[in-house]
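Practice problem 4.
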């Protein structure tokens, strides 16, 4: 179940058109990312649950490799994401999220219901929010 949630949430990619609009930071997100911290509803997941997972971003597409493969696209604006699953367990699903890129790290806070963007990178008391912090794969 937690793995499925992770896949649902990591459905990520970036739109080239949005990059041209001035979101220069997002071009830095291309590459392979590995999670080092995850939490949902204020509870941290043990590393063993996500230690083999990867998120690959290539412009407007994403691929999540875990127990299965999930692929899709993302549209974003000003630190917010709209994530659309196209293949895999999240096919046909839409998730909303906020993200930040700092010190070559990526943090994403997802709303699994998709009915609005999280207000902050905090999941305590909010069981529909999932937070994942990534470092770039070496």
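Answer key:
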């Amino acid at each position: 179940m937690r793995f499925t949630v992770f896949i649902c949430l990591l459905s990520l990619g970036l739109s080239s058109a949005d990059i041209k609009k001035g979101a220069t930071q997002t071009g830095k997100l291309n590459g392979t990312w590995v999670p080092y911290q995850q939490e949902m509803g204020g509870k941290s997941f043990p590393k063993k649950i996500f230690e083999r997972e990867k998120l690959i971003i290539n412009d407007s597409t994403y691929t999540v490799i875990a127990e299965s493969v999930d692929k899709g696209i993302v549209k974003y604006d000003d630190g917010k994401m709209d994530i659309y699953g196209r293949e895999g367990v999240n096919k046909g699903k839409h998730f909303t999220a906020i993200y930040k890129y700092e010190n070559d790290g990526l943090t994403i806070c997802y709303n699994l219901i998709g009915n609005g963007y999280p207000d902050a990178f905090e999941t305590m008391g909010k069981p529909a929010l999932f937070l994942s912090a990534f470092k770039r794969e070496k």
